[in-house]
Specification:
Blueprint lengths: L1 E3 L6 H14 L6 E4 L4 H5 L7 H20 L4 E4 L4 E5 L13 E4 L5 H8 L2 E5 L3 H16 L6 E6 L2 E2 L3 H21 L12 H10 L4 E2 L3 E2 L1 H6 L7 E4 L1 H14 L3 E4 L4 H31 L1
Parallel strand pairs: 1-2, 2-5, 5-6, 6-7, 7-12, 8-11
Antiparallel strand pairs: 3-4, 9-10, 10-11
Helix pairs in contact: 1-3, 3-4, 4-5, 9-10
Length: 292
């Protein structure tokens, strides 16, 4: 999964680089397009477009990238931000028709671009109501182009042998995050993030630290929802069941990582992922059984 920000590399060059990497890795590459929601952050790299302009540029960027990946002959493209003449990529992705495009962004400017270009739309770990709302918005935008989009959800599960131990572990993680930010002179409340994704997570956090069955917003509230900062808390069985609630809403990919990367990765692989796969298999078998 390559996180890529449009605007800093020519789309034709990025397409060829990604296609080459896809060949080298045997077709294992996916690209996550992150346009960027903070004007101040982008300005540090010399990008002074507005958010709406950045998303418009991203749409043109992906128009060209897809053509570079798939066109069997040189092509021209003229837009407001890019003008390429007789572009052509001799190296094509190993994956067909092309490398999967993940897309992030929850603003009104982002959703139409997602509908046109995303193969997989990436969400942070929001409430079930928020996820259902976004899925509906993206599906509506994609339908205008005759497309269907899959959905990925990012979370940081906190698991333990008992529910009480898991919540104690989560509380300790939030306390450590707060202490580290205070030591660094960073705020631990009252954040006003510019990007819509963080704003949505903070809207959820305002409802409480424990939402739905076991969605936890403790670290999101402390850090200003700077990135993937919400989790599901409980035993492996409880967290697996909570993940299935999102699967029922239309999420097909879970991108999970922990606060203790190595130990959490071991625990996820041993205790959580097999349970989720088993529950998904059972859920998918139910329609077939009913039809039979």
């Amino acid at each position: 999964m390559i996180a890529h920000r449009p605007g800093f590399t020519a789309p034709t060059v990025a397409a060829r680089q990604l296609a080459t990497l896809d060949q080298f890795t045997g077709g294992r590459v996916a690209v996550h397009i992150i346009t960027g929601g903070s004007d101040d952050e982008l300005a540090k790299d010399g990008d002074h477009l507005t958010k709406d302009e950045r998303y418009a540029r991203t749409s043109e960027y992906l128009d060209i990238v897809r053509q570079e990946w798939t066109s069997e002959k040189p092509f021209d493209y003229k837009g407001d931000y890019y003008n390429v003449v007789q572009a052509f990529g001799a190296v094509k992705p190993l994956q067909k028709p092309h490398i999967p495009v993940y897309f992030g962004g929850s603003s009104d400017a982002a959703i139409p671009v997602a509908g046109k270009h995303a193969d997989i739309f990436a969400l942070w770990g929001e409430t079930q109501a928020q996820v259902a709302e976004t899925i509906a918005r993206v599906r509506h935008a994609a339908a205008k182009h005759g497309r269907q989009v899959k959905f990925s959800l990012s979370l940081r599960p906190v698991i333990a042998e008992t529910e009480e131990a898991a919540w104690a572990k989560a509380d300790d993680i939030a306390a450590q995050a707060k202490a580290l930010r205070e030591k660094a002179g960073l705020p631990t409340s009252g954040h006003t993030p510019p990007n819509a994704g963080s704003q949505r997570l903070l809207d959820a956090a305002k409802q409480g630290t424990r939402l739905d069955k076991r969605l936890w917003t403790g670290v999101a509230a402390v850090t200003g929802a700077a990135g993937n900062s919400t989790g599901l808390v409980g035993t492996p069985e409880q967290v697996a069941e909570a993940l299935l609630d999102y699967y029922d809403l239309g999420v097909t990919t879970f991108l999970i990582r922990g606060f203790d990367p190595l130990n959490d990765a071991v625990a996820y692989g041993r205790d959580l992922i097999p349970l989720v796969r088993g529950l998904v298999a059972e859920r998918d078998a139910q329609p077939a059984a009913a039809a039979g």
